[in-house]
Specification:
The protein is mostly helical. It has one domain (27-125). It contains six helices and no strands. The protein has helices spanning 2-20, 31-45, 47-50, 64-69, 86-92, 114-125. Helix 2 packs across helix 6. Mean pLDDT is 80; it is low at 4-23.
């Protein structure tokens, strides 16, 4: 009976730990993370100018190829390196004094919430993993 109680306690501890423990630094490396968490942020805040048929500044955030290519002023995402990704600087509304390529984004409307910025930054840090072909909204 005691063995059963110990085994039950260990199972419960592993279950609780497994529910609380996520990928390191909350950065899931799966493509579905992009589709369910990052893409909705882009769709809501960025696609008006950088999605679908709109590629203002030569930048499309609607496809993996577009994100990795960047825009007229160069790359905006350096997978694994949010500190040097102009996309992150732009949505944080930082870096304009150091880098003329950086413009606060979205240019019209409100700055993204701190939570949304953290999600995008974490996604870039985790390697900016996204599906090759992103489903249309």
């Amino acid at each position: 009976m005691r063995r059963l109680a110990v085994l039950g306690a260990m199972s419960l501890a592993l279950l609780v730990w497994g529910c609380e423990a996520g990928p390191e630094d909350n950065q899931p490396p799966r493509t579905d993370y992009y589709s369910t968490t990052v893409q909705p942020i882009f769709r809501k805040n960025c696609y008006r100018c950088h999605g679908g048929m709109n590629h203002r500044g030569g930048l499309s955030l609607a496809t993996r190829a577009g994100v990795l290519k960047g825009g007229d002023k160069g790359r905006v995402v350096i997978p694994g390196d949010p500190a040097n990704s102009t996309l992150v600087e732009s949505i944080r509304h930082e870096g304009q004094d150091k880098n003329p390529k950086v413009k606060p984004m979205p240019s019209k409307g409100r700055k993204l919430s701190d939570a949304d910025i953290a999600i995008v930054e974490g996604w870039v840090k985790a390697g900016a993993i996204m599906p090759e072909h992103v489903p249309k909204p």
